[in-house]
Amino acid sequence: MDAESRDKIQTLLDQHRIMTVATLRPDGWPQATTVGYVNDGLSLYFLCGLDSQKAANLARDDRVSLTIDHDAPQVMEITGLSMAARAQPVTDRAEAEKVLRMMPMKYPPQASMPFAMPTPEQVRIFRVVPSVISVLDYSKGFGHTDLVTF
């Protein structure tokens, strides 16, 4: 990956905090859900409930597809990322605690939080490592994408 592509991907990851992640249900249908995320370089992390459908799906098959984008006022300003990736559970307590400390920093100060951040035992934390990233940038032409593989 060249430096320009890496910088563009890093910038888009840093500018956003939610993504749509698709996992595979037992019946083969994809299940797309919106989750908050943090990133450490090109590795992304998200949380989900211990008994969630996402957690069950990922226990069977760690493949995910995801998108990160936002609504743009002008069509030719659309930018975003889509990825094919693997989502692995975070089992190292130090890494899990680091992710849980990073989550609130991704958001502006909140007026009030109805509950404390969960502990590593209360949630599933997944590390998402990209295999292929498609960088969408309409400013380079309608529907323009650059494909980056790892």
Written account of the structure:
With 150 residues, the protein is α+β, with helices and mostly antiparallel strands. The protein has one domain (1-147): Roll (Pnp Oxidase, Chain A). Helices cover 23% and strands 41% of the residues. The protein has 3 helices and 8 strands. Strands 1, 2, 3, 4, 5, 6, 7 and 8 form an 8-stranded antiparallel sheet that branches. A hairpin with a 2-residue loop joins strand 3 and strand 4 (43-49).
* SS elements, strand count: 8
Task: Give the H and E element order.
Answer: HEEEEHEEHEE
What's the CATH architecture name? Roll
Q: Tell me, what's the shape? A: globular
User: CATH topology, anyone?
Assistant: Pnp Oxidase, Chain A
User: Could you tell me the strand content as a percent range?
Assistant: 35-45%
- Look at the helices and sheets and give the structural class: alpha+beta
Overall average pLDDT: 92
Helical fraction: 10-25%
Give the oligomer, counting copies of the same chain as homo and different chains as hetero.
Answer: single chain
* CATH superfamily descriptor: Electron Transport, Fmn-binding Protein, Chain A
Q: Briefly, what CATH class?
A: Mainly Beta
| Uncertain spans | none
SS element count, helices: 3
Radius of gyration: 16 Å
Largest sheet: 8 strands, antiparallel
Q: Cα distance, first to last residue?
A: 8 Å
Number of domains as seen in the coordinates: 1
InterPro entries: F420H2_bilvrd_red/Heme_oxyg (IPR052019), Pyridox_Oxase_N (IPR011576), Split_barrel_FMN-bd (IPR012349)
Keywords: Oxidoreductase
Organism: Rhizobium loti
Protein name: Pyridoxamine 5'-phosphate oxidase
